Structure formats: C-alpha cells, structure tokens
Amino acid sequence: MMTIQAELETAKIEGSSGGGAVKATVTGKMRVDSITIDPEVVSEDVDLLQDLITAAINEALDKAKKWLLPEWAPSLVA
User: Fold this and answer.
1) What phi, psi does 44 have (nearest 5°)?
2) What is the pTM of this model?
3) Measuring CA to CA, which residue among 38, 37, 30 is closest to residue 60?
4) Helix (H), strand (E) at residue 13
5) Domains, the chain, ranges and CATH?
6) Integer CA distances (angstroms), 39 to 43, 47, 63, in order
7) Closest alpha carbon to 32 in 20, 41, 21, 23
C-alpha cells in the first residue's frame, strides 16, 4: 500500500487554458511538474501567453485540491 506522501508525490493533475494551448501538470503536493505550450500561441503577445500559463496552473491546482480532499480526508480524520 502506497503511503500518503508517496501518493501525493506521484499524483499528476492537469489543468489547461486556451482550448488546450497551454497545459500545466501539478503533483498532489501542489508543485508544478510540467508546463506544455503549443508553439502557435508563442508570439509577440507575451501578455496573452502569461495569462494562459497562469490560468492553466490555477486550474491544475484547483483540480489537485478537489482530488486531495475526498481522497485523503478519511485517512486524516481516522
């Protein structure tokens, strides 16, 4: 059986923005694991790219929190 720490480190939760143009993956420990950017969104418009990256990371973190609570709440209370 995997320990809570090990599962938190190996869990991968993905968020995206711009219709999937930017994807961010975080771990269950709320650490950014990777960022993938479609080359077509890399242009002169740096502000848009920054907004897409921020949105993707925030979505991934929100999903990680939603995964974490139901997954581990019973273990933390017991």
Assistant:
1) -70, -20
2) 0.77
3) 30
4) strand 12-17
5) 10-77 (3.30.1310.10)
6) 8, 15, 25
7) 23
